[in-house]
Amino acid sequence: MHKVSILKCEGYTVAAVKHVILESFSFFGGVEKFIRSGEKVLLKPNLIASSKTDVATTHAVFVEAAVEIIKEQRATPLVGDSPAFGSTKGVAKSTGILDVLKRQGVDIVEFKKNDVFRGDIRITKSVNDFDKIINLPKLKAHNQFGFTGATKNLFGFTKGKIKAWQHVRARNNLEKFCLMILQIHDLIKPAFTLVDAIDIMENEGPRGGPKRHFGFVFAGINCLSIDTVMAKCLSIDIHQVPLLHVARKNGYTGTATDQIEVKGESVENATMADFGYPKTLSHISFNLRGIFRSVLLHLWLLAVKERR
User: Fold this and answer.
1) What is the pTM of this model?
2) Is the pLDDT of residue 52 over 70?
3) CATH number, span 2-307
4) Cα–Cα–Cα angle for 229, 233, 235, nearest 5°?
5) Closest CA to 78 of 46, 51, 41
6) H or E, element range at 119
């Protein structure tokens, strides 16, 4: 049986989020089972792009609560991601996370260049720099995947515009793209995942959609099981979620609801019947013109906006 916890968390205060995170760990043997003194622990939030109002990124308070818990275990927390647009530091600054890290005395990590792992899977060399990885995704609607959460957040370990190139390589083969993400998941194997589903984004994605209060934190070890439980809570058939459908089709464990033990709140108590998500999905492939515009925007952010 795979285990997933669901706990209520009504607002973004460090005390409230810390309490919920620690209780989430308790269902799996306690935080001390996962984080040991002296370890270097990467916290991997979802930092897609610079925005002070966009709800697409993991909340700064959620990150701060996780940072404090890691420090209390006498381990060294670091925070890193590879945003689609701009630098990690620039996105962290615009979302309030950089202020948190400065206050906490925690370093932000700009991922190193990609290396080839297992065939043609390209992810950052930085994965070898940490003893543990804690996954801190945001629950949100997504135009190409229906919704995203635990598993898709690991695509952020592919540094820079290689992510966009992977979309081009997929040639609109969604199953191929999903298998690539699943292979990245297999390579990363985060020690634990905590999903920020307190305020979520609906209707559009991966950014730009409206905020909606949900008031929950989902947690577990198996990312696919967490996503499966969240799909059920959002009243979405997993066959409408490409990543989960492809995982089940290809023999990945964690997507069968009868093999998932839910702790904390029941799925029924955490159900949102009218979550707005794209029923018709956009093409997974990007054209070269789109890639060129994306690169220009990325370079402009690095050279101009983030230096203001």
Assistant:
1) 0.90
2) no
3) 3.40.50.11440
4) 115
5) 41
6) none
